[in-house]
Amino acid sequence: MLDALFQPKSIAVIGASNRPLTIGYRIIQNLKDFGYQGPIYPVHPKNPEVHKIKAYPSILKVPGEVDLAHIVVKNTMVPMVMEECGQKGVKFVIINTAGFKEIGGDGIELEKKIVEIGRKHNIRIFGPNCQGIINTDEKVRAYANFTFARPETGYISVLAQSGGVGEVIHQRLVDLGTGTRLYASNGNAADISIPEILQYWATDEKTRVIILHIESLADPRAFMKVALEVTKHKPILGMKTGRTELGARAVVSHTGSLMKADTAIEAVFDKCGIISFRNQEELCQAAIGLATQPVPAGPNVGIITNTGGPGIIATDECIEAGLSLPDISEITRSFLKDHLFAEASVSNPVDVLATAGPKEYGAAIGALLKDQGIDSVMINFITPFFVDCEGVAKEMVRLAQDASKPILAVIMTDKKRKGEVVKIIKDGGIPVYDLPESASRALGAMTKYGEYQRRPDEKIVGFKDVNKVRVKEIIDQAKKEQREFLLAREVIELLEVYKIPVVESVFINNPEDFRQIADQIKYPVVFKVDSQDVVHKSDQGGVVLGINNEQQLLKELNDFRAKFTGPDVRFVVQEYLSGGKEIIIGVNQVEGLGHLIMFGLGGIFVEVLKDVSFKIAPLTEHEARGLIQSTRGFAVLKGVRGEAGVDLNKLTEIILRISQLVTDHPEIRELDLNPVLAYNQSGQTKVVDARIRI
Ligand code: ADP
Ligand code: MG
């Protein structure tokens, strides 16, 4: 319960100051200016008054109860002050003071110490090295923070790890004329954590949207557990900056090398249904859309415009944002024919023409809201001087009143002279955008949230036909022999006992071995080297494809024996698979998070385009399919231009079995199936090369 932090009945400021350029001054100023509803108790060793408010020499001398105390004294003084807060029975402290964990060395010790003191006295700590909180609720009006944004009361709450980013986002929302609800930036988060705040905000009725900025996650699993629940009924818009502690460990696998610094965080966001942003402006614009409008039930947008060009831009941008513009229904079409000007275009986008006034706009909006095939409505309005623009604005607001579909307005106008038009629409609760680009992106994000919300609540169903014990034995054996990589034959067996199809392979060392199997070989075959020292076999001439007869194979065997001479060198004769699509499936373990599963098409898709996607194991079937679908190469897998696609069910199954394999065996650090050759007929799809690191 963070009530006394976000709705404090009284606030003390320990380290209050009369010097204007100090935090101890600024906090009191902010509390006063914002109209804090409870008593403020400045604590100052000498001054009888700070900011013309009666001050006390110590927190112990404060007469009333203290819910929340800001601590802004020097870092080394904080433990002593915390002890006094303990004696006083203070419930929460916001430690603005810096000089703790973030400076390393002594700072780390100091932070541990204050956490201990907090535990001992039952004081919850917000910070240290942080800004503080804001609550704009009329009954509270706590600006317990030293920043400068002057928020209006609203429905968007901002939670930021970095105070700098949080403040900029907050200010931007203010500039966009949007109110905010709660704000928190908790710095080092020694005690009260981001998940705890999220959980509390989830229960705050007036918070409709949460904006979240993070740099790193102290405990990704705890975060995910909370965020996944919150996003089911409240959107979280996430922004990640800077380096992440979730970066990949030193990697040797292909999968690892394809991971970027923010891959893990992106995967966390995706797993929890957090909409991810790289751009603060887009983040704010989408937040406003979600705070004011219903969530779109699907991707189908109906666009209304009064000039062609902006309608086309809107269309392009919507498509780019992953939305679609379906045809409008016959009923809608004939209704519009009757109610719009004769020259109007009654398809999607609907061009009502420049002369359209309240009546025409009203007809078009009403019709699209009714059309079953439309999930959201975007209205473009360039304000002509010969039209009753205020009337159009009022008509929009009237129709939006009880609409169950979101409406976004793009008002292209001279804002100084036509400010009233914008004001009517905004006051009516419709978000107003300057350009179709920003509205489209906001709508794209809103739609994405809808998709997240509608995700099936699937359980992870494990395959029963796997042999977990055998895999454990294989791994234990490798551990005992202090091997980091599993041997090729171990990898094959391990995949086989998890029913992951592997190409048929025979291992040989010399011509004698070969003679024993010669009769069973069905040509064409592939001949490969197998050795711990040869990581990329084909780069070193260790893969020969399409060998058609025994003579050729013997020649390669002799060549290989001369070329590869390490102590563990062996050779593999493999069934040659022709014409499949090369797929790469990989796994990389990330500290504190678990396994990230990667999927991509091989060849240029991965080498040049780096076209891969990642998700966190264990995967549901929906997620496994999403993993495949979110690569650009997906079109190729489905089949393009008459070329057959591949059996996607089989690929999905392989991904799910891999997900289960690594979840069952956390010792597996990296795994590369590179490639899997995929075919239209499921029985043909097989792994031809695999590596596993433990
Ligand atoms: P490496 O990745 O170590 O170079 P691979 O075993 O993956 O070695 O072989 C290199 C390439 O040869 C593969 O990416 C694939 O295109 C092709 N290849 C390998 N084995 C087979 C096979 N059994 N059938 C068909 N093509 C194969
Ligand atoms: Mg390979």
Could you characterize what this model shows?
This protein has 694 residues and is α/β, with parallel strands linked by helices. Among the domains are: 1-129, NAD(P)-binding Rossmann-like Domain (Rossmann fold); 147-292, Succinyl-CoA synthetase domains (Rossmann fold, 3-Layer(aba) Sandwich); 298-426 and 444-453, Rossmann fold (3-Layer(aba) Sandwich). It is 37% helix and 20% strand. It contains 24 helices and 30 strands. The strands form six sheets. A seven-stranded mixed β-sheet has the order 9-8-11-10-12-13-14, sandwiched between helices. Strands 16-17-15-18-19-20 form a six-stranded mixed β-sheet, sandwiched between helices. Strands 25, 26, 27, 28, 29 and 30 form a six-stranded antiparallel β-sheet that branches. Strand 3 (49-50) and strand 4 (53-54) form a beta hairpin. It is flat, with a radius of gyration of 31 Å. Mean pLDDT is 94; it is low at 243-251. The structure holds adenosine-5'-diphosphate (ADP) and magnesium ion (MG). The site of magnesium ion (MG) has 2 residues, from loops.
